[in-house]
Amino acid sequence: MNPSYQLFYHPKVLGDVLLVMFEAETSATHFITHDDVTIIYHDQRLIGVNIFKIHDLIRIHAFGLILNPPDVLIKILNDKFANEAIDIFLPPFKSGFVVGRVIKMDASKIILSLGANEISAKCYEHLKIGDLLVVARPGTILPTGKIHSLTETQALICTESMFGISEFAHPIIVETPYQEGEPFLH
After folding, report:
1. Containing H/E element for 133?
2. Are residues 55 and 112 in the same domain?
3. Which whole-number Å values give the CA distances from 80 to 73, 75, 86, 121, in the listed order?
4. Which pLDDT belongs to residue 84?
5. Which residues contact 129 (CB under 8 A, 6 or more apart)?
6. Could you tell me which of 104, 121, 99, 68 has the C-alpha nearest to residue 174?
């Protein structure tokens, strides 16, 4: 199995456990624990894996959503899954945060191009057509730990305060070399 996934680590809140989430919004129906690994299922579908005592394997300095996990962490996780006979392989990380270009706007909503497709988002003041913005796709775990779910718009415009850049709720506007549709790795 070669899934899309999200990694979450916050030792002050959860203890020394790394959450590997494949379907973060799906409820667990049962789980299997073996040593320091808990495999989480919804019916027969694998929805997550919790790895306890992760510091025995690697030092993680991030807190919350790990937006751009290093290749060494992915290799360690894949090795751990193989040792535990978990039929999973984590590909290089695909960010839930992408860069979108404003192509249309009205008073309440904007349309962003992600390259191959278009999505809508809530409009903010001081945006203009052509701006490159950081947006979260549905299902993305935000730095706050909340999951962005599909609402009346398809994307959530990310703000400076969301990423701890400043205390202001200004949209993150990026410059080149970013292109529309590219992952935003902060």
Report:
1. strand 132-136
2. no
3. 10, 9, 9, 39
4. 83
5. 102, 103, 104, 105
6. 99
If you average pLDDT over residues 136-149, what whole number do you get? 72
Query: 16 or 155: which carries more pLDDT confidence?
Result: 16
Please check the confidence at residue 1 and state whether its pLDDT lies above 70: no
Instruction: Give the total number of structural domains in the chain.
Output: 2
Q: What percent of the chain has pLDDT over 70?
A: 88
Handedness of CA 91, 97, 98, 99 (dihedral sign): negative
Give the residue-averaged pLDDT of 154-165.
83
Tell me the whole-structure pTM to 2 decimals: 0.55
Q: Is residue 89 in a domain?
A: no
Instruction: Tell me which of 83, 108, 130 is where a domain ends.
Output: 83
In whole angstroms, give the CA distance from residue 48 to residue 7: 10
Core vs surface per residue 42-62: b (16+ CB within 10 A) or e? eeeebbbbbbbebeeeeebeb
Residue 127's CATH number: 2.40.50
Which residue range(s) make up the domain with 134?
97-174
Q: What is the pLDDT of residues 52-75, one digit of tens each?
A: 999 999 998 878 878 667 778 888
CA dist., res. 170 & res. 108, Å (int): 16
